[in-house]
Amino acid sequence: MVNLAAKPDTMYDFGGFPSILYTLRYPASTDLKLAADVVAKLRESGLRVGTTDQRSLDHGMWTPLMLMYPQADIPLVMVSLPHGASADTFFQMGRALRTLREDNVMIIGSGSYTHNLWQLSADGSTPQPWAAAFAGWMDQALQDNRQQDILHWKQLAPLARENHPTDEHFNPLLVVMGAASDDATPAKLHDDWRMGSLSMACWRFD
Q1: In this predicted model, what pLDDT tens digit does every residue of 105-153 receive, in sequence order?
Q2: What value, to the nearest 5°, has the Cα angle with vertex 70 and ends 20 and 58?
Q3: What is the DSSP string of 152-192?
């Protein structure tokens, strides 16, 4: 689904966090021309695409953008990922959109390198061995540009399901990997751990 809401509201699709988070707003505007291009490119690649003008910006969209562009002065297009799709489908989405980079469009895959909210420790705790093992394997796979291994991460990465009981926080990585230039080695921009098992690693794909 591609969001066509011209002035999307801010969605608080999370629970159990400090009340101040529910007062934040990110009043950005959708680039409707770019959104139409996104729809066309996805359809041309053979993917099923829908649109909506009723969607607010979810926290996967506005939380990183609030840190990157706090004035909300960058036009954006929010694209959802198909639930239950294959890794190859997410990679294909990236391939379909990567020519947008030639028009100075930044493609952001917003998720979490590890994301098991049932295995949290006190903030500041040493990363759990099972989380560190997964992140270390993924780091090396990305640095070696082992795309096929990453696409088959559920079978090959250590303790994959312990780190990602569900896929939605990992799948955006597959999209941006698909949008990357051929044979381009990604670079890690940031590395941080929260609550003993949440990796906040951030990668750049050229």
Answers
A1: 999 999 999 999 999 999 999 999 999 999 999 999 999 999 999 999 9
A2: 60
A3: THHHHSTTHHHH-SSSTTTHHHHHHHHHSPTTPPPEEEE--
Which token pair is 7? Answer: 């002035």
The answer to whether the Cα torsion of 28, 82, 180, 163 is positive or negative is positive
Give phi and psi for 102, each to the nearest 5: -65, -20
The model's pTM = 0.95
In 3-state terms the chain splits into helix, strand, coil percentages (rounded to 5) of 40, 10, 50
What's the rounded Cα separation, in Å, for the pair 3 and 97? 15
Closest alpha carbon to 194 in 86, 117, 103, 91: 117
SS3 state at 202: strand
